[in-house]
Amino acid sequence: MSLIEIEHVTRLFDDPKRGSAVKALDDVSVHVARNDFLCLLGPSGCGKSTLLNLIAGFDKPSSGSVRVGGQSITAPGADRGVVFQQPTLMPWLTVWENVAFHLTMQGVGKEIRRKKAQHYIEMVNLKGFENHYPSELSGGMNQRVGIARALLMNPEVILMDEPFGALDEQTKMEMHAELVRIWRDSQSTIVFVTHGIEESLALGTHVAVMSARPGRIREMLTIDLPRPRDSTSPQFNDTKRRILQLLRPEPMAVPA
Ligand SMILES: Nc1ncnc2c1ncn2[C@@H]1O[C@H](COP(=O)(O)OP(=O)(O)OP(=O)(O)O)[C@@H](O)[C@H]1O
């Protein structure tokens, strides 16, 4: 059984201003196995975030079903950690307090919170910054705090919506290496939204290439390139070319 099962999902959004509806997803079916690293790749507006939000439980499909671990998703849950493009940290809390934020909400004592936070702070390579505030860190470091916060809940699935979109190329590449290591160490399952072809190939075990309006899965690719991924290798570039072909707009049917 797959850990995540998305079956024939359609999501329509009402557009009352225009008296119509937007079909953000159209009959999307995706299965994600435990320990997979799935990248959802496609142009702006193809429904990547909509699909991620359905798995997170922030939204419900108009038709079809979304299950994680065999359970139908109706709301957010501790089995799914979410990392957004902006790390949404509390500016008045230190790094370790931000990482342990969910435990504070659960009324867990300070000593246990501190200890648990430390484990994940070290996992994301932020040792020494425990008592810094978000404003004292770089964008990449803040994003790592957000990742540590999601990992601390030990979720079965980590959902990431363009988490490195705001970072410069150099930092992004460092974060890719870091995230692959974290994914391996924590043996988690990741669904990662991106519009970057190279990013999807640097990270994923699978890439779901989506097409725009209505959002559909054009193809699910298995990426079995050796790690660390070498973006100059012929195999990497062959796969990149294949994805570029898939991302080209589908030709309109020509009347006979
Ligand atoms: N809450 C909403 N109400 C109305 N329309 C919506 C809503 N959320 C998304 N949409 C529409 O659904 C479509 C898919 O949006 P979505 O944000 O999922 O795309 P995306 O692939 O994540 O785009 P981007 O890469 O630009 O973030 C778009 O046409 C968008 O306008």
From TrEMBL:
Residue stretches making up the ABC transporter domain: 4-237
Pfam family, one: ABC_tran
TM ranges: none
The entry's keywords: ATP-binding, Cell membrane, Membrane, Nucleotide-binding, Transport
GO molecular function list: ATP binding
Entry annotated with the keyword Protein biosynthesis: no
Protein biosynthesis among keywords: no
Domain of life, per lineage: Bacteria
Family: Belongs to the ABC transporter superfamily.
Protein name listed in UniProt: ABC transporter ATP-binding protein
Species of provenance: Pseudorhodoferax aquiterrae
